[in-house]
Amino acid sequence: MVLIIKGHRFNFELENICRLFLPLEKVYVYYDEQEVTQDGSIVAVSTLKEGSDKLVLYSELTIEGRKECLEERILKNGGCDDKDIERKLSVQLYRLFVKHYGFTLSWGAITGVRPVKLLRQFAAEIGREKAAEWFKDELLVSDEKISLCLDILNIENEIIALSRPESFSLYISIPFCPSRCDYCSFVSHTVEKAARLIPLYIENLCKEIEYTGAVSRELALRLETVYIGGGTPTSISAEQLGLVLDAINRSFDLSNLREFTVEAGRPDTITEDKLRVIKSFNVGRISINPQTLNDNVLAAIGRRHTAQDYYNAFNLASKIGFGNINTDLIAGLPEDDIDSFNQSLEGVISLSPESVTVHTLAFKKSSNLVTKNRVSFEKGRQAAKMIDSSIIRLKESGYRPYYLYRQSKTVGGTENTGWAKPGFEGLYNVYIMDETHTILACGAGAVTKLCRPHDGFIERIFNFKFPYEYNSRFDEIILRKGRVKLFYEGC
Prior knowledge:
Largest sheet: 9 strands, mixed
Number of domains: 2
Number of strands: 18
Distance between the termini: 45 Å
CATH superfamily of the largest domain: tm_1862 like domain
Radius of gyration: 24 Å
Number of helices: 18
Strand order of the largest sheet: 14-15-13-12-11-10-9-6-16
Structural class: alpha/beta
CATH architecture of the largest domain: Alpha-Beta Horseshoe
Strand content: 15-25%
């Protein structure tokens, strides 16, 4: 599609509005109609005109010859800044898409990843009630999603209050999987293809962990949570897991640690030996993530395990003594429907895990679903009903929503929500989504996010994405980590 911008430069948010309704369309942006070289059956025009005392906001949408338009006039001295104007133009375009397609989105014109954080910021400025009204009236968010945000806000505020100016969390990346799921676009590598890289990768990862620990001690930082993710960390051997966990224990002061999570992830990677190694290092929280308990759906997304494998892995972890287990499900998967999704949900609830995370399928451009043209947004409303069903059942089963984030190109435009029994909320999930404090990250594809305590300014340090590059250019990783000291010295 073609997006023509006149009189302003707010293309980024307007592109995001287009993707809410046309997630796989490439958006070609032009700043002058005379420059348009790309033909398209969908053309949007966003115009800002400045008069003597008023601003004129005009939006136009043409789809297959059918044109709709909206106009709004606001006083120049009416208190609108650039953000307000950008929002108003975005909402105008959103309304035109709604008028054409005949349906609304539950999150309205919100396009950002962190709606709860946005609500928190407004609540701090104008109060919770007015912030909720602003979400409804100005961003067109549904009552149900506003209520969900408010519920999460209460719990997140308690967790965020635990963090101090010197607090940080640690993320460790183990980017290997037994196979790549068809919906996945993470930089992960199958164990079979990457086997020769893993020993050196683990060796270098332990060195980076040691260096990062030394930096954190020198800066007198306080470690709150540790999260080992991937990929699937349990794709590597029990011995290799032990080396990584030992490096963490040796390198960091864990005396103030509130949470230690290992994402076991795929049930087909979980063995008794691996679980016992993880348990021996006082890891308190693990994730076992089937995504669905329908074997047909598992096969359709390229998983090499069955629903029974999940039950076996969960029961083994419980037997070994893990008392804080998270399970992930995904709404909107290929071959899934509302009945089978609800059966998966009931199967998970029957095991009574301490927390459940319900994701919505997102179509990532490098995933097999997209590259092999297995994409369908026809099931958007069905996926939204799956999410609605999960909200009802999890609340009925004693779970509370404690964190939430959104992704672009999701089926049905919904969200990912973490649910937990009281006292079992995943603290790391809250801290990274709220950007509460610094996240020091180690491993291929890991991103360190340095957060300045007094104003929330964030600086990022990127590690190389691929394991082979991480291994071959490891010295550069250590050099980049030196920026952590410089950042805190400047605070």
